[in-house]
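step=encode ok
step=design start
structure_in=
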């Protein structure tokens, strides 16, 4: 088990390092010098010596290798550098914008999982007939809906036409999160629901389910007692992978609803070639994605005794 934990942790660190390195190389390969683009303006009246001092302050005067080593060293100590656009510490900007994105992503993830479970429950209620086939088709519809289009439609229907959920000057903070959370949750709930439904159908054919039914157990008792746990395990793995898609959807959703999160910060950083801010956003997003998948990998042997037995045998 210790070897398994060390192996998964090492793989997670390797992925994080690769994400940092690839993003650093791609950002450095952008055309032009962002520092000179901003400060080499006649209106500033800066001398070449002052421009050189500014480039040194932003660590843009060294070789690519020295910049890489300095940047990765600063990131390891929690120093993300300074924003070229605003001239403030990147960590200060993240402290303002990151909580909003974390709240949106967390609520969206929980809502997506809830929607997937609700669809699975309705599909396994006896006697629904044709309605069950319709419910089975809902995940395919969800997965084909673009995030930006869904957000706009939710605003048009529930805010402007029905006036049920205000998005402009909401009375309570939670009211302004209802539509953004649904916009993030619906697209990723679809693959969760599809996998959960497929796993439930597969588990229902296993011998231990037939034995439980032969003993007189009801359909709902078998479903919750024997099927649910076995069917949910693969969903956990997919959920970790889908979290990356959720982060991307959160960026688009923040732009649609005008939320002050990482999405708006990233959009401004791209516009002004603010490399330090972009690098920090990429690394934090990658670290969040890696941490969630690592937690799922470490939790899997606890939830699935068969994997724990295999690990013990391998050792």
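sequence_out=
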């Amino acid at each position: 088990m210790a070897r398994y934990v060390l192996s998964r942790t090492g793989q997670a660190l390797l992925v994080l390092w690769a994400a940092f390195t690839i993003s650093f190389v791609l950002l450095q390969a952008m055309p032009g010098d962002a520092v000179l683009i901003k400060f080499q303006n006649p209106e500033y009246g800066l001398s070449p010596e002052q421009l050189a001092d500014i480039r040194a302050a932003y660590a843009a005067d060294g070789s690519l290798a020295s910049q890489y080593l300095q940047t990765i060293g600063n990131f390891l100590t929690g120093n993300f550098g300074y924003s070229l656009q605003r001239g403030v510490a990147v960590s200060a900007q993240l402290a303002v914008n990151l909580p909003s994105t974390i709240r949106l992503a967390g609520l969206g993830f929980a809502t997506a999982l809830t929607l997937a479970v609700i669809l699975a429950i309705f599909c396994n209620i006896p006697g629904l007939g044709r309605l069950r086939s319709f419910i089975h088709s809902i995940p395919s519809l969800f997965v084909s809906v673009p995030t930006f289009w869904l957000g706009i439609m939710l605003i048009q229907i529930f805010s402007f036409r029905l006036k049920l959920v205000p998005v402009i000057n909401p009375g309570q903070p939670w009211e302004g999160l209802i539509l953004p959370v649904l916009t993030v949750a619906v697209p990723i709930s679809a693959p969760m629901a599809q996998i959960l439904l497929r796993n439930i159908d597969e588990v229902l054919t296993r011998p231990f389910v037939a034995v439980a039914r032969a003993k007189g157990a009801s359909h709902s008792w078998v479903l919750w007692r024997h099927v649910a746990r076995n069917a949910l395990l693969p969903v956990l793995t997919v959920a970790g992978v889908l979290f990356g898609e959720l982060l991307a959807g959160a960026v688009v959703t923040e732009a649609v609803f005008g939320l002050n999160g990482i999405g708006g910060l990233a959009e401004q950083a791209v516009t002004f070639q603010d490399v330090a801010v972009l690098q920090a956003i990429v690394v934090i997003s990658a670290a969040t994605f890696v941490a969630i998948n690592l937690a799922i990998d470490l939790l899997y042997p606890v939830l699935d005794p068969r994997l724990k037995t295999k690990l013990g045998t391998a050792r």
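step=design ok
step=annotate ok -> The chain has a mean pLDDT of 80.
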